[in-house]
Amino acid sequence: RKVQQLEYRIDELQFKFDSSLSLQGSMCDNLDMPAIYLIGGYNGVTWLSSLDSFSPKKDILVSLTSMGSARSYASVAAMEGCIFVFGGGDGSSWYNTAECYNTRSNEWMICPCLNHEKGSLAGVSLNGKIYAMGGGDGTQTFSEVEMFDPFLGKWICSPSMLQPPIS
């Protein structure tokens, strides 16, 4: 667990250090910020692990490194140059897994798992933390809130919502 915490902290510090440097020769060179990221999903035949970035300014779509697992109905939140993807499922099971995409290095990193498997949840970043709210598992809808603290390297149960959202 300590190693994961240190790896995340190193990535965070590296991003801050590199934030003013360009990525010459990178697939990301063709993109301007802001970009719209298309992450995973379902195409009617198969569950997707793909990651694409769309630049509205240049009107181009660039394929980036795929996630480690195919998933749909996942949630995402961006924080400090990373896109966190958590929850969701592949049509046969729901996930509690989480992955983090570093927009500077075009690499994915496995993150600590949520406390429960779920999909169709909401996600947001606030004050250096990632929040996973609500969601469901196909039979029940949850009102729970989990907070990912990068410094601690784990998801922490937070006060639940008064009512579960309709998913």
From TrEMBL:
It comes from the Eukaryota. One of its GO terms (biological process) is response to endoplasmic reticulum stress. SMART domains: Kelch. Pfam families: Kelch_1. This is DCD domain-containing protein. It comes from Aegilops tauschii subsp. strangulata (Goatgrass).
